[in-house]
Amino acid sequence: MTLSVKCLKIDTYGENIAYLSCACKIYKPEEFLGLNKVEVSGRHGKTILATLNVVEDEKILGCMELGLSIPAFRRLGLKEGGQVSITPATPPASLDHVRAKIYGEVLGARAIREIVDDIAAYRYSKMEIAAFLVSCASFMTVEEIFNLTVAMAKAGNILDWDHAYPLVVDKHCVGGLPGNRTSMVIVPIVAAYGLTIPKTSSRAITSPSGTADTMEVLAEVDLNLKKMKQVVHKHHGCLVWGGKVNLSPADDIMISVERPLGIDTPEQMVASIMSKKIAAGSSHLVIDIPVGPTAKVKTRKEAMRLRKLFEHIARRIDMVVDVVLTDGTAPVGFGIGPVLEARDVMDVLACREAGPKDLRERSLMLAGRILEFDAKLPGGEGYRTAKRILESGQALETMSGIIRDQGKAEKTHPGTKVFEVKAPKSGQVKTLDCGRLARIARAAGAPHFKGAGVDLLKKTGEKVKQGEPLYRIHAEIGSDFAFARAMAEENSGYKIR
To answer: 73 to each of 69, 80, 156, 165, how far by Cα in Å?
Structure first.
C-alpha cells in the first residue's frame, strides 16, 4: 500500500517532517499518534526517518498523498508523484547512550560515535538532539571532547589533498564579533604567497552574516568537491560553504539546535571547530579568540581555558595550532551584514583609503601568523610579508581569480530602506555593544536579505556631536525595517560620555 509523495515547499530548517491527510484511505493518523518518527520508504529503496504531522485541509494534501518538507523531500530523492510507504520507526538504539549521559555517565568513543552517526543521518528529532547537547553541557571530560571531535569529523567527508601540498593551512575565529571578516582578506594573501588554504566556512545561524554569506555576495559558494579542488589547485585557496561538501555534517545539525537554546560551552565549541578542520584536511591552523565584555568570550580567564582545550585536542590529532587572543571589545570594520561586509573586504584588498583600518590590521596580523608556518620564512617576517603582498596588489589579483573560478555572483546593493541612528548627546564614543548591534542587523533582515544590516559611521574613541549619525540601518522590506528601527531606538548599542 503506497501513497504519492508531494513536496509541500515548507522549509523546516534541516528537519525531516512528513505530512499525512486526516482523511487518508490507507493509513489512519491515529495509528501513529504518540510516535516520534515514521519511516518513509520509496520504491527506489531509499528510506528516511521523519516526524509526522497531520493535515486537515484537503486543498493542501490529498487523501492519497504523503507530504514532505523541503529537506525531507530532497533527502528521499524521489520525484513528485513517486510512490512511498510509511511504517512506525524504531527509535535509534543510541538514545540509550544519551539517557546514560543525562544520568551522569561518561561515554566511551563507540557510544559517542553511534550518537553522532545517528544525528548526521537525521534519525534524531530536535528534542532528542537538545537532550544530548544539554547533557554534554552539564559536564564533559577531555576524553569525551576528543572522541566527539573525531566522531563528528568521521561522520562526513574528510578531504584528502593527496600529499600534493606540504602544508594545508587554515584560520578560524570562534565568533561573537560582528563584521570580523578577516578570512576573506587572509585567504587571498596566504594563497598569493603560495601556501594552500582551502577555506570552508559556515553560514550564519543567529549572527548577521557568516563568511559564506558574505562571500556569496561576490561569488558562488555552493561548490561541489570536484569544483572546489579545481579552484584550490589553480589558486592555492578558495572560500566555500562547508555544508555543500559535507564536512562534519552532524556539527551543522547540532549547531542549529544549540544556538536557539543559547548553548555554547567551551567543550562543544572546541569539538565543533576542530572536527571541521580535521574534515577539511588542515595540517596547520590559526585560531582567533576575540575577548571582550560583549563578545562570545568575555574574559581572559575564559580565553585561556579555551586555548588550552584547543591545544590539547590539536596535539591528539597531530595538528599544529597557533591560538591568538585578540581585541573583542568592538565590531570590526564598518559593515555588519553580507553586502556591507563584502564592501569592507574589497576596500581592504584594493588598498582604498576608505577601507576600515581595523579590518586591515587584524587581517595582516593573522595572515602573518599563518605565513610563519612556512619554515622558509624567518620568524617575525610574517606580518611584513603579508603587508607587501596586500600592497603589491597580488592579494586582490588572487581574490579576483578565486571569484571568477568559483563563479561570479550578481551584483547586490545595500537595502534601500535607510534609517540613521543619531547621537543623543555630544561626547566621545566609549563602548559599542557587539551583541546588540548584531541583533539589530539581524532584525533588519541580515543575512537572509544580503543588503540588510548596519553601517557604522562612528567607532570607539571618536568624538560625536548631538544629532550626528552613529550608524545607518539598511533593510529591504518594511517589517524588518520597522523592527530594527524600534530596537535601535530602544537601545542603540552605543555608550557616549
So the answer is: 6, 9, 20, 39
